[in-house]
Amino acid sequence: MAALYGVSTKRLNEQVKRNRRRFPKEFMFLATADEAIFLRSQFATLNTGWGRHRKYAPYLFTEHGALMLASVLNSARAIEVSVMIVEAFVQMRHAVTIHAELAERVDELESRLGKHDSAIAAILSAIRRLGQTVPSKGRPIGFTADLNQD
């Protein structure tokens, strides 16, 4: 997470500790000893020397915790991620609203038709199925970080 937001791990941990009330258990938790060992084993080698690797289990963040973390960190990347997450939620809310309005109108038309015209009812049914999925408009919603960036 620190690399994603462009800050040091020490800085990230400081901000989490200073803003502990912003991170309830649904947003963030400590890895268990087994999880920490598993994470450690994912790296081929450990850095040598005093203080080069973790002594304590790392924090793990849910989606909500990642957003909250972006709001407490003051790096350019964290601000960018915060804005992108808010934009994604606005787009999702807009899509849900459009689909809810479309479904309401189709229901209204179906109630007026009754069962007299099966062809129109079939068309309305097809429209309803089309309204259940949102086609992608360009790049996917979300943030991906190029961790190789300097």
Structure description:
The protein has 150 residues and is mainly α. It contains 6 helices and 2 strands; from the N terminus they run H-H-E-H-E-H-H-H. It has a two-stranded antiparallel sheet. The chain is elongated, with a radius of gyration of 24 Å. The two termini are 16 Å apart. 10% of the residues are buried.
Index terms:
150 residues; mainly alpha; two-stranded antiparallel sheet
What's the SSE blueprint?
Elements: H1 2-5, H2 9-18, E1 28-30, H3 33-41, E2 59-61, H4 63-72, H5 76-113, H6 118-130
Antiparallel strand pairs: 1-2
Compute the CA-based radius of gyration: 24 Å
Task: Provide mean pLDDT, rounded.
Answer: 76
Tally of alpha and pi helices? 6
Distance, first to last CA: 16 Å
> What kind of sheet is the major sheet?
2 strands, antiparallel
DSSP strand (E) fraction?
Answer: under 5%
Q: What letter string, H or E per element, gives the SSE order?
A: HHEHEHHH
Assign an overall shape: elongated
Structural class: mainly alpha
Number of strands: 2
